[in-house]
Amino acid sequence: MTKWLLLVVCLGIACQDVTSAAVNHQRKSSKNLAHSMKVIYEWKHIDYDFGSVERRDAAIKSGEFDHTKNYPFDVDRWRDKTFVTVERFDGVPSSLNVVTNKKGKGGPLLHPYPDWSWANYKDCSGIVSAFKIAVDKFDRLWVLDSGLVNNNQPMCSPKLVTFDLTTSKLLKQVEIPHNIAVNATTGMGELVSLAVQAIDPTNTMVYIADERGEALIIYQNSDDSFHRLTSNTFDYDPRYTKLTVAGESFTVKNGICGIALSPVTNNLYYSPLASHSLYYVNTEQFRNPQYEESNVQYEGSQDILNTQSFAKAVSKNGVVFLGLVSNSAVGCVNEHQVLQKENFDVVAQNEETLQMIVSMKIMQDLPQSGRINDPGNEYMLALSNKMQKIINNDFNFNDVNFRILGANVKELMRNTHCANFNNKNNQKNNNQKNNNQNNNNQKNNNQKNNNQKNNNQKNNNQNTNN
């Protein structure tokens, strides 16, 4: 088979020519996709700044620290701090951390944030498992604490924790009610992603993905209310439960996973991990406290991607970036264009450094830049963690396993479909056209699904701040 025949095959096939790609109709590009994103930090294994050799040795002896059980899952940045979360397994001393300038044998050492006292979780006063985090424009760090140990053992109630980044002091801690955090029918729930919509310091919405319970949870900061929404667009697709990364496969039955909020349209983009879909819901409708769940409109399409997608992020110009699982790549689509396969593109692809991108953030500067960059620019920060090896438990800790990478957003988009912003004024028309093409039956399906599952889902329980 010739090179050109390979280039028109679906993105699920790994092409040897990584300098040319698009999600459906791959084409030549002057860009070197393998080097589009630069490695900023890398680790063979995760280690911590314990303060002394004696304390580290004691942590190893007691089982508090086991470097083979520490896997990073999220990254974010505020001024000179780069945050890294580590899912809590036995042997993880701290889940919420900052990267230090100290080096260990495995890579840069991590230090608990705000301090070691927050790493103590067994009485539920600290942070159990900070799976995902978000920094908002009011200098607040939002932490989604799943309350789980070893991925599936409930230790404490899940909660949202908010810190003032200027002082590193706790602002708020709100438990997520059990009937909100789990699926009432299956009893399952795992809160894995969040997106923060900070309209003002009080009027802030937080969107949370329940991967195992297949739901979207909405938190309103002003009154501490939670709503749980379900939709068939949150459900995993049994056709796509097998994921393959760098030739290594594993199986998941996970629903809605990576979510990202557009600063342009206020669309919340999402997809079930076990799917080839991309959906969105406009969050303007949630600002009305009287909205009806049966009237919530979900848009998007099944089978629009050629692989599964985990992490997502949206630029200030409305470009949606997606981590493409089987391709070890970053894809993009411009939300000012019709959501169809022909408008997707690939901006980075590297079989080694981009194995399982589990986190993406858009920001104004990058670590180790030495200064705040030009505010006219945007930068992507991404984390890859070889999740296939976490699930299959076959890491080689002599190899580099975890990486934080960065890139200039404009450079990523150069010479791609995503760089075309000429259709901004036609957003409504494009959305309508896209809806007619892909979603003729979506509203009816969702309404039926919501009527079946959500008659009594709203919950406005008031939570006491700790």
From TrEMBL:
InterPro entries: 6-blade_b-propeller_TolB-like, MRJP/yellow-related. Residues 422-466 have a biased composition (Low complexity). Residues 1-20 form the signal peptide. Residues 420-466 are annotated as: Disordered. Transmembrane segments: none annotated. It is found in: Secreted. Gene3D superfamilies: TolB, C-terminal domain. The keyword Methyltransferase does not apply. Its main location: secreted. Keywords: Glycoprotein, Secreted, Signal. GO terms for cellular component: extracellular region. Belongs to the major royal jelly protein family. PANTHER family: GH10609P-RELATED, PROTEIN YELLOW-RELATED. This is Bee-milk protein.
